[in-house]
Every structure is written in structure tokens, then in C-alpha cells.
């Protein structure tokens, strides 16, 4: 580093211009009289004594009398420690500025646009950590590995976690060991896709694929906006792709995160021919409070009459009616209004074998 640059750096670290110039000059001179330091540094002679005393107070130099005031630089360890401490504080300040700018506090009903993917995945990690019921995730294998500890903790808490892993066309399929303990079901999309993390139907973290022209992220803490990301996840990142990992195994219970998936299997089983017991976890649509009921399926109402191979339709109202200890309870999906319960986790706990 040239002398001029060193002086400027010391000024940025907190020294005055005269202090920085005098200290650099003294480093080159070793030991010198105040007059020689003034001549070498360009500090005005009337000011050099105050400058040297200030540097001595900072432990940068020491002065002594030998016919005239003389000065010598201290061992640089003190200066180096001071500069490194200043550098650490500056680095911390830079990180704090970045965090406060990139990660505005998300209030209820809020949404933010961010420019760094790191912010998106850090918020996703926080959403996963705080989730109580459900996590839906679209990610690469690399980012899944990063989020795996938080996902395992969520699974251990009883959170329903489903993951859609996307890979490039020339990339190998994900190793199934990657899903062990991190989710209850995983699907593989052999096509690049955005990063999407949804938690408890109210928080969303979204970022375009890194190769996309549009490079920004969206953070949401709002049920209505998260609902849009949910439908994108369901129709584009989940439903069309093959299941590659299923921790539930064969037999009962069978868990669903969407009422339409449940209806598909109810029609395949033939719910009218044998009693099917369903446990529903969700929210009371009148009070908004969490609700869990267990009852027998007595009706399935769908807006389509066709008995297609999939029995799966995206549009329209889908309702499952239950008999809960003699009381009628209707169950709808995300955004249910007219039903009694908005189901977030629907589990068949007793039914005839599914062919």
C-alpha cells in the first residue's frame, strides 16, 4: 500500500489527517524529533506537539525529552489490535445495515420485495423454525441440505413437511437419503423451478430460479397472498410430478394436505360403501380458532360429476361432510368460508383397503 493510501486508510479508521500523516512519517523515521516529524509529514510545526501528544494518548507512539521533544512508534501490536477491532466493528455495521435493509420486519398482512437470495432462504429458515402445522417447500438439493436441520426439527415437532426438489435436465436425481427425517413426502421435478417455502398457510418465501432474468425475492406474512403461492406450488411444483419418497408407508393412517387429494382417494375407496373415519385438523371458520374433529364421512360434494381416473379438479368448491358424534360438520380446503372447518391436515384413520 502506498503512503498516500495508508494515510487515507488510517483517517478512515479514526485518525485525523494530521495524526495519520505524522504517524506514517514516524513509522518511516523510526525515532525522530518533533521538528523532523513535522518536516517529513507536512504537519505545521505549531501543531506537531499537540498531534504527537494525541497519538501518545492513543498508544500509537511514545514521546520523551532529549534536549528536545522526540518521538518513536510503539510496537505495532497495539495499533494492529485497534485497527482490527475497528475493522470488525465496520464489518458488523455493514452486516447490520444489510440485514435491516434486506430483511424488513414482516408485520401481519405484510409483504416485501428483496434483492438477495440469501435473505429469502434465511427468512424461509425462520418460517420453518416457527411453523406449527404445515411446510411446503420447492428447492434444489443444495438448499434442501442447508434447510435440513430446521426441517428435521419441524418433523420432530409433528409438523407436516412436503418437499418438491427440482433439478436441471442434466443433473442427477436427488439421493433419497436426503429426505430421510426431513419430510413425510417428496416429489422430483426434473426441471428448474423457483424457490418456494410456505409455512402454516400464512408465510411465504419466494425467489426466481438463479438463471431467471428477473432476480428478486418476495416475503409474505399474509394468508391471502400466501394462498396465491400455494396454488402455484400445488399446480406447477407438486401435482404433476412423481412421488420419490414417502415416509408414511402403506396402510393407515393416510395424511393429506389438500382436501382435493383426500376426495380423490375417497372416491377411489368408495366412501359410500364402507364407513371411513377422518381426523381433521384446521381452523373453525367462524372463530378462526384451531379445531380438531374426528368423524365418519357421510358425503362428498364436488363441482364435477365425472368419475375420471384422477378424480382431481382444481376449480370450484370441494366439501367433505362428517358425522361427528351425531353432529354434522362440513370440511373445506384452504380459504373455506361456508364450511364449518378449514382443513389443514386431513387424515384417514380407518377405512377399507385402498386398491
Automatic annotation (TrEMBL):
CDD domains: PLDc_like_TrmB_middle
Record-linked InterPro entries: TrmB-like, Tscrpt_reg_TrmB_C, Tscrpt_reg_TrmB_N, WH-like_DNA-bd_sf, WH_DNA-bd_sf
Record domain Transcription regulator TrmB C-terminal: where: 112-348
Protein name in the entry: Transcriptional regulator
SUPFAM superfamilies, alphabetized: TrmB C-terminal domain-like (SSF159071), Winged helix' DNA-binding domain (SSF46785)
Pfam families: Regulator_TrmB, TrmB
Domain of life: Archaea
Transcription regulator TrmB N-terminal domain: residues covered: 10-70
Membership in a protein family: Belongs to the transcriptional regulator TrmB family.
Amino acid at each position: 500500500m502506498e503512503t498516500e493510501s495508508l494515510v487515507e486508510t488510517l483517517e478512515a479508521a479514526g485518525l485525523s489527517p494530521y495524526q495519520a500523516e505524522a504517524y506514517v512519517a514516524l513509522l518511516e523515521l523510526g525515532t525522530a524529533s518533533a521538528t523532523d516529524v513535522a518536516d517529513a509529514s507536512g504537519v505545521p510545526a505549531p501543531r506537531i506537539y499537540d498531534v504527537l501528544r494525541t497519538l501518545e494518548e492513543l498508544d500509537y507512539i511514545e514521546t520523551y525529552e532529549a534536549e528536545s521533544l522526540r518521538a518513536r512508534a510503539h510496537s505495532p501490536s497495539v495499533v494492529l489490535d485497534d485497527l482490527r477491532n475497528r475493522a470488525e466493528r465496520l464489518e458488523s455495521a455493514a452486516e447490520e445495515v444489510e440485514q435491516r435493509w434486506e430483511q424488513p420486519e414482516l408485520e401481519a398482512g405484510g409483504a416485501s420485495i428483496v434483492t438477495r437470495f440469501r435473505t429469502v432462504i434465511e427468512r424461509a429458515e425462520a418460517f420453518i423454525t416457527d411453523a406449527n402445522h404445515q411446510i411446503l417447500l420447492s428447492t434444489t438439493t443444495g438448499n434442501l441440505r442447508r434447510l435440513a436441520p430446521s426441517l428435521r426439527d419441524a418433523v420432530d415437532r409433528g409438523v407436516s413437511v412436503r418437499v418438491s426438489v427440482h433439478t436441471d435436465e442434466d443433473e442427477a436425481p436427488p439421493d433419497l437419503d436426503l429426505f430421510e427425517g426431513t419430510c413425510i413426502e417428496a416429489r422430483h421435478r426434473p426441471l428448474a423451478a423457483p424457490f418456494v417455502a410456505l409455512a402454516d398457510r400464512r408465510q411465504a418465501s419466494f425467489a426466481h430460479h438463479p438463471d431467471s432474468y428477473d432476480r428478486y425475492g418476495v416475503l409474505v406474512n399474509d394468508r391471502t397472498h400466501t394462498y396465491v403461492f400455494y396454488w402455484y406450488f400445488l399446480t406447477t411444483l407438486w401435482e404433476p410430478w412423481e412421488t420419490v419418497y414417502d415416509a408414511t408407508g402403506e396402510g393407515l393412517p393416510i395424511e393429506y394436505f389438500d382436501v382435493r387429494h383426500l376426495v380423490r382417494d375417497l372416491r377411489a375407496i368408495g366412501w359410500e360403501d364402507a364407513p371411513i373415519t377422518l381426523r381433521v385438523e384446521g381452523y373453525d371458520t367462524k372463530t378462526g380458532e384451531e379445531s380438531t374433529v374426528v368423524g365418519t364421512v357421510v358425503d362428498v360434494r364436488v363441482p364435477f360429476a365425472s368419475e375420471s381416473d384422477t378424480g382431481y379438479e382444481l376449480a370450484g368448491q370441494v366439501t367433505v361432510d362428517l358425522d361427528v358424534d351425531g353432529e354434522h360438520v362440513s370440511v373445506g380446503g384452504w380459504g373455506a368460508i361456508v364450511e364449518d372447518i378449514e382443513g389443514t391436515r386431513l387424515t384417514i384413520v380407518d377405512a377399507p383397503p385402498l386398491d
